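Postdoc handover notes: sequence design on the structure in folder B. Input tokens:
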């Protein structure tokens, strides 16, 4: 029995499952690192509720699991689709939870021009179905803009051609928003530029343009791919300012050409569409001014002749006023006689009236009786209204205790029913719900810990790379034999002319600091000869540099 037990014991080390999984994970990540994998997307069902995307890359003989984190998925140039052939760039790693290996994708791009064209056609049809390319939503260009915003590269020939053409046709204010017109960030930068121009306030320090020109020279499909960005097409379609697209040559087309209000064949053509020719406008204005002056002169002449003809047909002022003057004279004569008759009539009427103190007293007594009668009526009416209100309030006071007791009885019944419901709820059901919530919290905790570990691992890798490439630091310079001279305030002394005789200085070396005393100052352009030596506080000997 003892021999069988001895034979079962071996010298092989024992590992836990987690140790084996961790060793495999480190081996795979150290051996492969970042790789580029070409394959067909399989099992893609869209992003998970967490925002991450899980699918597989396969060919005719193998299959590789893939994952795209939420932050990376939002930066992809296109949406993955089932069956699409792509080239994935990322980090090869393992997932201990399922004992398999996978690739964490950092970048995803279609495999070949044919895939790009298919992706572009799919994106074009989807945006067209949303109505972004409808002619009804396109805006008209202003005839004479005051400010033009140009979104392009500030170092290319495109901006020079646009500025030269605008200067020749109609000089005005041009605001350039510099962007990259090629590369992974081109689409996002142009999108931010279009949205930034729309966000400028009226009357701000930076003038708000009246229209926007998005321009770039010609190139291949890959070079112009940034202008096929879906976010850029939506930003151009939603722009409140008219947008002219001048991307590539006349044979090239991108999504921004379909979403823009006007498409120009070249950047120079965009400048010609944006502004008219000033000389032609001046000539047209001069011609219209001359025609307007001639028309005004002819109109005045015609009006003068018509006025003269009408004056000959009209009667004279004496003829017009003769009848009115005669009627006025007749009315004047009748007015004097009517005034005398009216005065006599009023005098006769007033003489018939007799106003005596007895009459006035009688009128006052009659008015007093009327007021007394009205006062008694008002007092009786007020007493009646007060009595009615007092009866109403007494009735309400009698009914109030009954209503209060009924409400109290109803609230007690409701409280008793609620207690009955709470007392019969199963305890096992509450425990089951609590366990479900605890399980959900555990899952969320594991996911959060995994995400934080990935973030810390990435930051550690970046710090190691930075530390390996940092060769020009201050300590590295001191290790090569140099020293820093500091004044009593701790400030760096850069010139010998700044040193005063008798001033205490600090010399900082790679392994410590020495305190010295300046015994003289050097003239500008000359080196100072040492005159004395100073001992550092740590007991060493250090000669004076001055």
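Designed sequence:
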């Amino acid at each position: 029995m003892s021999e069988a037990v001895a034979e079962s014991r071996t010298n092989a080390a024992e590992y836990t499952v987690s140790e084996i999984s961790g060793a495999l994970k480190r081996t795979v990540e150290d051996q492969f690192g970042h790789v580029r994998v070409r394959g067909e997307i399989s099992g893609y069902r869209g992003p998970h509720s967490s925002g991450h995307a899980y699918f597989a890359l396969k060919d005719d003989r193998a299959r590789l699991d893939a994952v795209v984190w939420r932050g990376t998925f939002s930066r992809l140039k296109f949406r993955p689709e089932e069956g699409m052939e792509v080239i994935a760039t990322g980090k090869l790693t393992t997932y201990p939870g399922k004992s398999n290996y996978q690739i964490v994708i950092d970048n995803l791009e279609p495999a070949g021009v044919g895939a790009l064209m298919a992706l572009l056609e799919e994106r074009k049809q989807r945006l067209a179905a949303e109505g972004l390319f409808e002619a009804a939503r396109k805006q008209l260009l202003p005839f004479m803009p005051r400010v033009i915003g140009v979104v392009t590269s500030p170092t290319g020939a495109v901006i020079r051609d646009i500025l030269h053409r605008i200067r020749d046709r109609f000089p005005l204010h041009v605001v350039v928003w510099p962007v990259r017109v090629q590369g992974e960030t081109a689409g996002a930068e142009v999108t931010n530029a279009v949205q930034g121009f729309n966000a400028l306030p009226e009357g701000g320090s930076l003038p708000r343009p009246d229209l926007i020109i998005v321009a770039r020279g010609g190139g291949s499909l890959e070079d112009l791919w940034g202008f096929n960005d879906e976010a850029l097409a939506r930003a151009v379609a939603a722009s409140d300012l008219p947008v002219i697209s001048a991307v590539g040559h006349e044979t090239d087309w991108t999504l921004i050409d379909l979403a823009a209000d006007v498409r120009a064949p070249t950047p120079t053509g965009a400048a010609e569409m944006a502004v008219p020719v000033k000389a032609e406008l001046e000539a047209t204005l001069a011609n219209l001014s001359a025609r307007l002056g001639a028309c005004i002169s002819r109109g005045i002449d015609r009006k003068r002749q018509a006025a003269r003809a009408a004056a000959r047909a009209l009667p004279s002022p004496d003829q017009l006023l003769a009848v009115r003057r005669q009627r006025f004279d007749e009315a004047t004569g009748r007015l004097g006689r009517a005034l005398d008759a009216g005065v006599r009539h009023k005098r006769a009427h007033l003489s018939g009236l007799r106003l005596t103190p007895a009459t006035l007293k009688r009128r006052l007594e009659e008015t007093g009786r009327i007021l007394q009668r009205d006062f008694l009526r008002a007092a009786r009416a007020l007493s009646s209204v007060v009595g009615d209100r007092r009866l109403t309030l007494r009735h309400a006071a009698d009914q109030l205790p009954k209503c209060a007791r009924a409400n109290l009885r109803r609230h007690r019944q409701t409280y008793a029913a609620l207690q009955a419901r709470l007392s019969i709820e199963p305890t096992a059901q509450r425990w089951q719900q609590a366990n479900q919530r605890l399980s959900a919290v555990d899952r969320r905790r594991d996911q959060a810990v995994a995400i934080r570990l990935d973030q810390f691992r990435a930051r550690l890798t970046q710090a190691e790379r930075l530390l390996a490439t940092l060769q020009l630091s201050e300590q590295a310079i001191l290790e090569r034999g140099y020293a820093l001279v500091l004044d009593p305030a701790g400030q760096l002394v850069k010139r010998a002319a700044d040193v005063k005789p008798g001033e205490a200085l600090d010399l900082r070396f790679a392994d410590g600091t020495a305190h010295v005393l300046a015994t003289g100052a050097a003239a500008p352009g000359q080196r100072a000869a040492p005159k004395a030596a100073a001992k550092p506080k740590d007991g060493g000997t250090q000669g004076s540099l001055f």
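Context for whoever picks this up: The CA atoms of residues 96 and 504 lie 64 Å apart. Don't rerun without checking with the PI first.
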